[in-house]
Amino acid sequence: MIAGCIFDLDGTLVNSTYALQRSTNLTLEQFGLSPITLEDIKKIVGDGYKKQMERALLLHGEDAMQFYEESLPAYMKNFSKNCLYQLDAYEGIRGLLAYLKETHIKTAVFSNKPHAQTVENVEYVFGKGAFDVILGQKEGNPVKPNPAGVFWILETLGLKQEETLYFGDTNTDMRTGKNAGLATVGVLWGFRGRKELEALAPDYLISHPDEAIQIVKQRNER
Predict the structure, then answer these.
(1) How high is the mean pLDDT of the chain?
(2) Where would you tag: which of 49, 72, 74, 117 has the fewest CB atoms within 10 A of its CB?
Protein backbone atom coordinates (compact mmCIF):
# COMPACT_ATOMS: atom_id res chain seq x y z
CA MET A 1 0.00 0.00 0.00
CA ILE A 2 1.11 3.56 -0.75
CA ALA A 3 0.28 5.99 2.03
CA GLY A 4 2.68 8.81 1.22
CA CYS A 5 4.53 10.55 -1.62
CA ILE A 6 7.58 12.78 -1.24
CA PHE A 7 8.39 15.13 -4.13
CA ASP A 8 11.46 17.04 -5.18
CA LEU A 9 10.47 20.59 -6.16
CA ASP A 10 12.48 22.03 -9.07
CA GLY A 11 12.17 19.94 -12.21
CA THR A 12 9.62 17.63 -10.58
CA LEU A 13 6.68 19.73 -9.40
CA VAL A 14 7.54 23.10 -10.92
CA ASN A 15 9.48 24.43 -13.88
CA SER A 16 11.78 26.94 -12.21
CA THR A 17 14.45 27.13 -14.91
CA TYR A 18 13.65 30.76 -15.77
CA ALA A 19 13.83 31.90 -12.15
CA LEU A 20 17.07 30.01 -11.54
CA GLN A 21 18.63 31.30 -14.74
CA ARG A 22 17.62 34.90 -14.02
CA SER A 23 18.96 34.77 -10.45
CA THR A 24 22.22 33.13 -11.53
CA ASN A 25 22.83 35.51 -14.43
CA LEU A 26 22.14 38.59 -12.33
CA THR A 27 24.76 37.30 -9.90
CA LEU A 28 27.29 36.56 -12.64
CA GLU A 29 26.72 40.02 -14.10
CA GLN A 30 27.78 41.59 -10.80
CA PHE A 31 31.24 40.09 -11.35
CA GLY A 32 31.47 40.98 -15.02
CA LEU A 33 30.73 37.45 -16.20
CA SER A 34 28.58 36.51 -19.18
CA PRO A 35 25.13 34.89 -18.80
CA ILE A 36 24.56 31.14 -19.00
CA THR A 37 21.83 29.36 -20.95
CA LEU A 38 18.74 27.45 -19.85
CA GLU A 39 20.47 24.23 -20.84
CA ASP A 40 23.39 25.16 -18.59
CA ILE A 41 21.00 25.75 -15.70
CA LYS A 42 19.42 22.32 -16.10
CA LYS A 43 22.87 20.75 -15.74
CA ILE A 44 24.13 22.70 -12.71
CA VAL A 45 21.13 22.76 -10.35
CA GLY A 46 19.88 20.14 -7.91
CA ASP A 47 22.53 20.08 -5.20
CA GLY A 48 21.86 23.35 -3.40
CA TYR A 49 22.64 26.96 -4.32
CA LYS A 50 26.28 26.79 -3.18
CA LYS A 51 27.08 23.95 -5.58
CA GLN A 52 25.00 25.70 -8.25
CA MET A 53 27.09 28.87 -8.04
CA GLU A 54 30.29 26.86 -7.95
CA ARG A 55 29.29 25.13 -11.19
CA ALA A 56 28.14 28.40 -12.77
CA LEU A 57 31.51 30.00 -12.05
CA LEU A 58 33.40 26.96 -13.31
CA LEU A 59 31.61 27.36 -16.63
CA HIS A 60 33.61 30.59 -16.90
CA GLY A 61 36.90 28.90 -15.99
CA GLU A 62 38.91 28.37 -12.85
CA ASP A 63 39.79 32.08 -12.66
CA ALA A 64 36.15 32.89 -11.96
CA MET A 65 36.28 30.91 -8.71
CA GLN A 66 37.84 33.97 -7.05
CA PHE A 67 34.28 35.32 -6.86
CA TYR A 68 32.82 32.23 -5.20
CA GLU A 69 32.47 33.42 -1.61
CA GLU A 70 31.08 36.81 -2.67
CA SER A 71 28.69 35.16 -5.11
CA LEU A 72 26.79 33.23 -2.43
CA PRO A 73 25.14 36.15 -0.58
CA ALA A 74 24.75 37.94 -3.91
CA TYR A 75 22.88 34.98 -5.36
CA MET A 76 20.61 34.67 -2.33
CA LYS A 77 19.73 38.37 -2.61
CA ASN A 78 18.94 37.99 -6.31
CA PHE A 79 17.05 34.76 -5.80
CA SER A 80 14.90 36.18 -3.01
CA LYS A 81 13.71 38.84 -5.47
CA ASN A 82 13.33 36.55 -8.50
CA CYS A 83 12.44 33.08 -7.22
CA LEU A 84 8.88 33.32 -8.59
CA TYR A 85 9.91 34.53 -12.07
CA GLN A 86 7.86 32.66 -14.73
CA LEU A 87 7.30 29.85 -12.21
CA ASP A 88 4.57 27.28 -12.86
CA ALA A 89 3.61 23.66 -12.28
CA TYR A 90 4.31 21.07 -14.92
CA GLU A 91 1.36 19.79 -16.92
CA GLY A 92 -0.55 17.11 -15.00
CA ILE A 93 0.94 17.85 -11.58
CA ARG A 94 -2.19 19.51 -10.22
CA GLY A 95 -4.25 16.51 -11.30
CA LEU A 96 -1.85 14.14 -9.56
CA LEU A 97 -1.96 16.14 -6.34
CA ALA A 98 -5.77 16.30 -6.47
CA TYR A 99 -5.91 12.50 -6.78
CA LEU A 100 -3.55 12.00 -3.85
CA LYS A 101 -5.59 14.36 -1.68
CA GLU A 102 -8.86 12.64 -2.67
CA THR A 103 -7.42 9.25 -1.73
CA HIS A 104 -6.00 10.53 1.58
CA ILE A 105 -2.39 9.90 0.61
CA LYS A 106 -0.01 12.21 2.48
CA THR A 107 2.28 14.45 0.45
CA ALA A 108 5.52 16.28 1.14
CA VAL A 109 8.04 18.45 -0.69
CA PHE A 110 11.76 18.00 -0.01
CA SER A 111 14.10 20.40 -1.79
CA ASN A 112 17.71 21.52 -1.72
CA LYS A 113 16.40 25.04 -2.39
CA PRO A 114 16.64 27.26 0.73
CA HIS A 115 13.66 26.61 2.99
CA ALA A 116 12.06 30.06 2.84
CA GLN A 117 12.09 30.09 -0.95
CA THR A 118 10.88 26.47 -1.06
CA VAL A 119 7.81 27.41 0.96
CA GLU A 120 7.30 30.58 -1.09
CA ASN A 121 7.52 28.66 -4.37
CA VAL A 122 5.11 25.94 -3.28
CA GLU A 123 2.52 28.30 -1.87
CA TYR A 124 2.76 30.63 -4.90
CA VAL A 125 2.07 27.81 -7.35
CA PHE A 126 -0.21 25.49 -5.36
CA GLY A 127 -1.56 27.62 -2.51
CA LYS A 128 -1.27 27.07 1.22
CA GLY A 129 -2.08 23.62 2.56
CA ALA A 130 -1.49 21.80 -0.72
CA PHE A 131 1.12 19.58 0.98
CA ASP A 132 1.22 18.08 4.44
CA VAL A 133 4.91 18.99 4.87
CA ILE A 134 7.33 21.31 3.06
CA LEU A 135 11.06 21.05 3.77
CA GLY A 136 13.80 23.06 2.11
CA GLN A 137 17.47 23.37 2.92
CA LYS A 138 18.22 24.91 6.31
CA GLU A 139 21.65 26.02 7.46
CA GLY A 140 23.30 23.21 9.38
CA ASN A 141 21.12 20.49 7.88
CA PRO A 142 22.60 18.11 5.30
CA VAL A 143 21.47 18.50 1.69
CA LYS A 144 20.30 15.70 -0.56
CA PRO A 145 21.34 12.98 -1.31
CA ASN A 146 21.71 12.70 2.47
CA PRO A 147 18.41 11.07 3.53
CA ALA A 148 18.07 12.88 6.87
CA GLY A 149 15.31 15.14 5.52
CA VAL A 150 13.38 12.15 4.23
CA PHE A 151 13.57 10.44 7.59
CA TRP A 152 12.31 13.61 9.29
CA ILE A 153 9.36 13.77 6.88
CA LEU A 154 8.50 10.10 7.45
CA GLU A 155 8.55 10.59 11.22
CA THR A 156 6.55 13.82 11.04
CA LEU A 157 3.83 12.26 8.88
CA GLY A 158 3.85 8.86 10.58
CA LEU A 159 4.82 7.06 7.38
CA LYS A 160 6.82 3.87 6.85
CA GLN A 161 9.53 3.51 4.23
CA GLU A 162 7.79 0.66 2.43
CA GLU A 163 4.58 2.66 1.98
CA THR A 164 6.18 5.85 0.60
CA LEU A 165 7.24 6.83 -2.93
CA TYR A 166 10.01 9.33 -3.66
CA PHE A 167 9.74 11.44 -6.86
CA GLY A 168 12.57 13.34 -8.52
CA ASP A 169 14.19 14.32 -11.81
CA THR A 170 17.95 14.02 -11.11
CA ASN A 171 20.56 11.51 -10.00
CA THR A 172 20.67 13.37 -6.67
CA ASP A 173 16.99 12.63 -6.14
CA MET A 174 17.32 8.97 -7.04
CA ARG A 175 20.22 8.63 -4.61
CA THR A 176 18.20 10.40 -1.91
CA GLY A 177 15.26 8.04 -2.26
CA LYS A 178 17.46 4.96 -2.35
CA ASN A 179 19.54 6.16 0.61
CA ALA A 180 16.30 6.46 2.56
CA GLY A 181 15.09 3.01 1.54
CA LEU A 182 12.13 4.26 -0.50
CA ALA A 183 10.83 3.18 -3.89
CA THR A 184 12.00 5.82 -6.37
CA VAL A 185 10.10 7.37 -9.26
CA GLY A 186 12.22 9.14 -11.87
CA VAL A 187 10.34 11.82 -13.82
CA LEU A 188 11.35 12.52 -17.42
CA TRP A 189 9.79 15.99 -17.79
CA GLY A 190 12.37 17.71 -15.58
CA PHE A 191 15.91 19.03 -15.80
CA ARG A 192 17.78 15.85 -16.69
CA GLY A 193 17.28 13.05 -19.19
CA ARG A 194 16.47 9.37 -19.30
CA LYS A 195 20.12 8.30 -19.42
CA GLU A 196 21.00 9.96 -16.11
CA LEU A 197 17.96 8.56 -14.35
CA GLU A 198 18.29 5.04 -15.76
CA ALA A 199 21.88 4.91 -14.51
CA LEU A 200 20.48 5.03 -10.94
CA ALA A 201 17.95 2.25 -11.65
CA PRO A 202 14.77 3.87 -10.30
CA ASP A 203 11.90 1.58 -9.43
CA TYR A 204 9.72 3.50 -11.87
CA LEU A 205 10.43 5.88 -14.75
CA ILE A 206 7.52 8.02 -15.94
CA SER A 207 6.89 10.56 -18.71
CA HIS A 208 3.69 12.18 -17.34
CA PRO A 209 2.19 12.65 -13.87
CA ASP A 210 -0.84 10.55 -14.88
CA GLU A 211 1.47 7.53 -14.83
CA ALA A 212 2.11 8.18 -11.13
CA ILE A 213 -1.61 7.84 -10.48
CA GLN A 214 -1.56 4.44 -12.14
CA ILE A 215 1.43 3.34 -10.05
CA VAL A 216 -0.36 4.27 -6.84
CA LYS A 217 -3.57 2.56 -7.97
CA GLN A 218 -1.73 -0.63 -8.88
CA ARG A 219 0.22 -0.70 -5.63
CA ASN A 220 -2.92 -0.12 -3.57
CA GLU A 221 -5.00 -2.73 -5.41
CA ARG A 222 -2.62 -5.58 -4.66
Answers:
(1) 96
(2) 72
Question: What Cα–Cα distance (Å) separates residue 194 from each residue in 152, 158, 177, 197?
Answer: 29, 32, 17, 5
The distance from CA 195 to its chain's CA centroid, rounded to whole angstroms, is 18
Please classify residue 38 by burial: count the beta carbons closer than 10 Å to its beta carbon, then call 0-12 exposed, 13-18 middle and 19+ buried.
exposed
Rounded distance between C-alpha atoms, residue 109 and residue 111, angstroms: 6
Q: Is 171 exposed, middle or buried (0-12, 13-18, 19+ CB in 10 A)?
A: middle
In this structure, the number of other CB atoms found within 10 A of the CB of residue 34 comes to: 9
Closest residue by Cα to residue 47 from 192, 169, 145, 193: 145
What pTM was estimated for this model as a whole?
Answer: 0.89
Give the list of residues 6+ apart from residue 158 with CB closer than 8 angstroms, or none: none
| Angle, CA 75 vertex, CA 173 and CA 175 arms, to 5° | 10
**CB crowding 81-95: b at 16 or more within 10 Å, else e:** ebbeeebebbebbee
